[in-house]
Amino acid sequence: MSDVQVSGAGGRRRRSAGGGGRGRVRGGRRWLAGVFLLPALVLLGALVGYPIVFSVVRSLFDASGDGFVGLDNYGAMFSDEGIRTALRNNVIWVVVAPTVSTALGLVFAVLTERIRWGTAFKLVVFMPMAISMLAAGIIFRLVYDQAPERGVANAVWVGVHDTFADPAPFPGAKPRPRAGLEASGGGSFTTGSAVRAGSPVLLPLVAVQPDDLRGARAAAAARPRPGKVTGTAWLDFTRGGGGRPKAIDGDEKALAGLRIEAVRGGRVVASATTAADGSFALPAGRADGARLRLPAANFAEAYRGVDWLGPALVTPAIIGSYVWMWAGFAMVLIAAGLAGVPRELLEAARVDGAGEWQVFRRITVPLLAPVLVVVLVTLMINVLKIFDLVYIIAPGSSIRSANVLALQLFQSSFGTDVDEGLGSAIAVFLLLLVLPVMYVNLRRLRKERRR
């Protein structure tokens, strides 16, 4: 027994000696490691170190670069309204974009484990990462286009809206001048005199869009009917000219579906809708002696959707395009972490009666916390430098509302009012914002190594 121990001790001594020898070899050749690292260090200094030092020094001088102004550029940075807007938008970006992307990535990663085509779904979600920011910006500039015939977002929005709300039959139409119809407020038109049974009313309109007349029949003059107030609404326009104003010519089109209201004392006492030939009839007992009104709903402009790239929504819209790109990145990293979660813990919780929501909230998410932090911190660093999407997607009318620090840096340094001193100050400030996030990330990496 003692021989084994001695032998073991000797073995330990031999191992210790061998280890010391290896340590001396490493120490003796540190200069060789330095030689190999020198090109990388020189390149790092040229591409990273020198620009940082130069930016710090340049931020202390004026626009010309000759006059020393100290910290005045930093003071001007916080007094400028555009830069304050950029700073506020950066805060929104840092809070919203990484959080939403990480949350969606977590949901996708967990759900794709339960579906048959999970791998294909992950591929589709991750595919936007293969697209450059420039290409993604061009895509979403088209997606958010105001015109529903070009912008996908508004095409869907208008389709949903028109499903639940009837569009105006003749948007933009108006009465022919001096035809007896007067504007009565809110876009409606009312006859200048009261109508009588036995005297058909003529309601000539113009400025009707050709698309609204597809399939329209020729207008027919209404005839007097006992106990009815009758009339006709039509497009008083003859192609090629030659038609008579305020008179129904042979091929002039009827305006079907137009709402007509009889108004007496400010109240609607009767209403009707024009037929396929443009004619209408109202009960004389109510409409006789009243005035006819064409409500504004007949002529309201077609719903054109939401102004996604207007000043109010431009930042959320651009964040949406960023999430579209980076949710796949978050999903892949989280799915890799999810693959390392012990399945026996999940099964044990289910056996003990825990529901899927409880398993997700109390077991899956805590076990994935290190991965979630990695994804969140990485995306926070990424959005602090966001530039491409904002520069491409935001139109000129909304660029100030969508401004971020990286874009402001570009505009201050290379825009119309070139001030490299102010641009350098913004660059230094942006670096200071990134440093705390990088420090947290480095500390987390060191803790992981110690484990």
TrEMBL record:
Gene3D superfamilies: MetI-like (1.10.3720.10). Its main location: membrane. InterPro entries: MetI-like (IPR000515), MetI-like_sf (IPR035906), UgpAE/MalFG_permease (IPR050809). CDD domains: TM_PBP2. Keywords: Cell membrane, Membrane, Transmembrane, Transmembrane helix, Transport. The gene is lacF_3. Residues 87-441 form the ABC transmembrane type-1 domain. This is Lactose transport system permease protein LacF. SUPFAM superfamilies: MetI-like. Belongs to the binding-protein-dependent transport system permease family. It is a multi-pass membrane protein. Residues 1-25 are annotated as: Disordered. It is found in: Cell membrane. The chain crosses the membrane at residues 31-53, 91-111, 123-144, 323-342, 363-384, 422-442.
